[in-house]
Amino acid sequence: MGDTIFGKIIRREIPATIVYEDEEILGFRDIAPQAPVHVLFIPKHRPIPTLDDATAADAELLGRLMLAAARHAREAGLAEDGYRVVMNCREHAGQTVFHVHLHLLAGAPLGHFGTP
Ligand code: 5GP
User: Fold this and answer.
1) For residue 38, what pLDDT band results from cuts at 50, 70 and 90?
2) Measured CA distances, 29 to 12, 15, 35, 58, 115 (Å)
3) Residue with CA closest to ligand 1 atom 15
């Protein structure tokens, strides 16, 4: 699916540290972590470049991304202290890989964010 670096990770053409997988979702460690724990969750089968390209038909898949992150956080012992999930959309958010993905950031208190 898709001709991005994440498509290559799904097809196991390039290595990644995979920490979560189910029928629809793959979770793997970010190559340039922004927190002690930084995992990316991506859909394996449906090509959605950005959140803005998602439609009502993608509602369940987007929900599954969130639940996969929450499940992984729970199983990794991160849920009690807490964590952040982020999805960047296009240029102003700094999106660099156009295969929709959810960031899970955890493992330490996280700084405030959102200011330009
Ligand atoms: P974005 O900025 O598009 O929301 O997030 C893309 C993320 O993918 C970045 O945090 C970046 O570090 C990560 N990334 C880019 N290329 C690779 C790669 O080849 N392997 C892994 N594991 N992460 C990558």
Assistant:
1) very high
2) 14, 11, 11, 24, 26
3) 31
